Amino acid sequence: MDPKNLEIRVEKKKSFNVYKIREDFPILQRKVWDKPLIYFDNAATTQKPKQVIKTIESFYKNLNSNIHRGVHYLSQASTTEYECARKIVKVFINAKYEEEIIFTRGATEAINLVAHSYGSVNLRPGDEVLITFMEHHSNIVPWQIICERTGAKLKVVPIDDNGEIIIDEFEKLLSDRTKIVSVVHVSNSLGTVNPIEYIISRSHEVGAVVLIDGAQSIQHIPIDVQKLDCDFFAFSGHKIYAPTGIGVLYGKRSLLEAMPPYQGGGDMILSVSFEKTIYNELPHKFEAGTPNIEGAIGLGSAIRYVQNIGLDVIYKYEKQLLDYATEQISQIPDVEIIGKARNKASLISFVVNNVHPHDIGTLLDRDGIAIRTGHHCTEPVMRRFGVPATSRASFAFYNTFEEIDVLVKSLKKIIEKFK
Ligand code: C6P
């Protein structure tokens, strides 16, 4: 790949230089097994820019204090920063109200919150919850648990050989019994970008509420929850260059207001007596206990970082990376790409004839290349494609075309070795 092509001009005003970007990520400067690190495990978690690392360091050096509790300077200042992070998230996903942004531990907790709180009061025997075959376990198991408790039924929309939802089957399964539709935006094991606008509007026609699992889309695709009109949107901070242990549940205010608390504890109450407890207002009603304060502030910093580059710019660059990697990897004999949807984002899952994915992962690692191998917490997807596991290379905007060339070279070497 000609390095000249790397400085792409994606928009008239914004130019994007991947080498400048890489300077922001200290970990990308390190070596692994004496080789330059090539980090292609971004769907598992992303690396953190120095701006985010600095924000967290500065929090502990200058502000550390509990929030919403103290009259003293530090508590007031850290509360302001925490609530400022909520404002940043609100603007980033274009929520209507700040109180629609609930901080959670991650996408998993956000989905569990909706399943247990909304599900426990809105599901009855005979009702149905609709998910798809390509869901992460985090968007399967919470629904299984709540369906078992309430007597509701879990229905699953099948996917085709390309890894796309079969829309005709979705239509057949959708009915006035459907109370909740919970769908992944971008599949973490196939890369499929689902037509969520259509799914949301069709689900609303039958009166169902819709949760979008945005764990793999928030870092790649601009999100506008008002335009999408989704009822809930869940994501994890660590997939968008923020620390682990922080995530977001967006929910429409009217729905969140009517929902019972998910957990009880400090900060989620207005008053407590043994006779009666009055719950706090949104968003605090759903944020029991001391939250991940530095995580939320770090998330705010990460979103600012992404906004400075522009998600539209990121999306275009990553699309070029994905197209290039797809073209290169699909030319390697004995390699089969799993997931060939027409609309994909930023990752490639593949299997190699007669070589187990774990061997591929281990040997690539020796060349400094980090990918993920396994079922990616999507066992039903693996079963659907008749494979026990895949190798997955997932990209971020700090990856380069040259790194893809190294991956392809190393893969060819490994395949040759196993012949
Ligand atoms: N997928 C992957 O390597 P948490 O663990 O709560 O941050 O995110 C859960 C989750 C939910 N939905 C989707 C689509 C996801 O991809 C993930 C996390 C990681 O693919 C870890 S298994």
Note the main attributes of this structure.
disordered N terminus; Aspartate Aminotransferase, domain 1; alpha/beta; 419 residues; Aspartate Aminotransferase, domain 2; 2 domains
Molecular structure report:
The structure is a single chain. The protein has 14 helices and 19 strands. It has two domains: 3-48 and 310-418, Aspartate Aminotransferase, domain 1 (Alpha-Beta Complex), CATH 3.90.1150; 53-308, Aspartate Aminotransferase, domain 2 (3-Layer(aba) Sandwich), CATH 3.40.640. Mean pLDDT is 96; it is low at 1-13. The two termini are 28 Å apart. It has 419 residues and is an alpha/beta fold. Strand 3 (31-32) and strand 4 form a beta hairpin. Ligand C6P binds at residues 43-44, 106-108, 136, 138-139, 184, 188, 213, 215-216, 236, 372, 376-377. Ligand C6P binds next to helix 4.
